[in-house]
Amino acid sequence: MMTHNQRSAAIFAVPAILLCIPLIAMQFTKEVDWSGSDFIIGGILLFGTAAVVDLVLRNVKSQRHRLILTLLVLAVLFLVWVELAVGVFGTPFAGN
Fold first, then answer.
1. Which of 2, 61, 87, 90 could form a disulfide with 94 if both were Cys (CB 3.0 to 4.6 A apart)?
2. DSSP sequence for the chain
3. Cα(32)–Cα(34) distance, rounded to whole angstroms?
4. What distance in Å separates the CA atoms of residue 59 and residue 42, rounded to the nearest whole number?
5. CB 19 within 8 A of CB 40
6. 0.85 cut: is pTM over it?
């Protein structure tokens, strides 16, 4: 069984690993071209999501509510990430 601190460390390790993927890919291909601001925005989104998920897991007692809230947070992250990446909804938020 994982302690709260071990679970938190695992939750916050995921965004760090995800941000390493484009960093490593940039070393091998020109098709991945992230600027410093891309990494900052990605870090804010990913680590912010990890913080909210950790908060939900620490404070919500019902297993069902934990799952629902965690999936909702991840869905919001996905929608914001997709909007920033390709502008699916055409909002000014994506630069369209």
1. 87
2. ---HHHHHHHHHHHHHHHHHHHHHHHHH-SS----HHHHHHHHHHHHHHHHHHHHHHHH---HHHHHHHHHHHHHHHHHHHHHHHH-TT--GGGT-
3. 6
4. 26
5. no
6. yes
